[in-house]
Amino acid sequence: MSAPKWRIVMACDDAGIEYKNTLMQDLKNDPRVASVEDVGVNEKTDKTAYPHLSVIAARKIQAGEADRGLFVCGTGIGIAIAANKVKGIRAAACMDPFSVERSVLSNNCQVLCFGQRVVGIELARNLTKQWLGHVFDSSSPSAAKVQCICDYEEEEAKK
């Protein structure tokens, strides 16, 4: 299955701005990417907390304004947790090729998160390139598991 031309939304806090800027340039130069939207931060002095930026970006995916997100903070963990609070969004902090692959192929994650303090920039660049090539197969055995996640999300929303 070939990958579509992705519309990517990016977010970071002040601990991830260098990686966000580097990865954004890579994405803009990749023929598999149709567009890149940056929701910030854009200055090292901007101390906006990552949950705000993560949720803003995740809501763009939820609304159909973007297909995927690439988010960066110090560890990748907090920004992923915040994105996962948005209904229908699945985000994962990944640090190796297998996790990136499985985040999409097994879990239909729309958001890839990195930690600038824990993943080297060249690894992050390579993982991003790999991520663009993965497409979830809704007829795969993993689809039923992803549906279970969605069902639990719906159940929790009713409480």
Chain-wise SSE layout:
Blueprint: E1 6-12, H1 17-28, E2 33-38, H2 50-62, E3 68-73, H3 77-83, E4 91-93, H4 97-105, E5 111-115, H5 121-132, H6 142-157
* CATH fold description: Ribose 5-phosphate Isomerase B, Chain: A
* Helix percentage range: 40-55%
Q: Biggest sheet: strands, sense, closure?
A: 5 strands, parallel
* Sequence stretches where pLDDT stays below 50 over 5 or more residues: none
Radius of gyration: 15 Å
Number of E strands: 5
Number of domains: 1
**What is the name of the CATH architecture?**
3-Layer(aba) Sandwich
- Overall geometric form: globular
How many individual helices? 6
User: What kind of oligomer do you see?
Assistant: single chain
Global mean pLDDT: 95
Q: What percent of residues are in strands?
A: 15-25%
Q: Tell me the distance between the termini.
A: 38 Å
How are the strands of the biggest sheet laid out side by side? 2-1-3-5-4
| CATH fourth-tier homologous superfamily | Sugar-phosphate isomerase, RpiB/LacA/LacB
Using the coordinates above, name the CATH class: Alpha Beta
Structure notes:
The protein is α/β, with parallel strands linked by helices and 159 residues long. The protein has one domain: Ribose 5-phosphate Isomerase B, Chain: A (3-Layer(aba) Sandwich), CATH 3.40.1400.10. The chain has six helices and five strands; from the N terminus they run E-H-E-H-E-H-E-H-E-H-H. Strands 2-1-3-5-4 form a five-stranded parallel β-sheet, with helices on both faces.
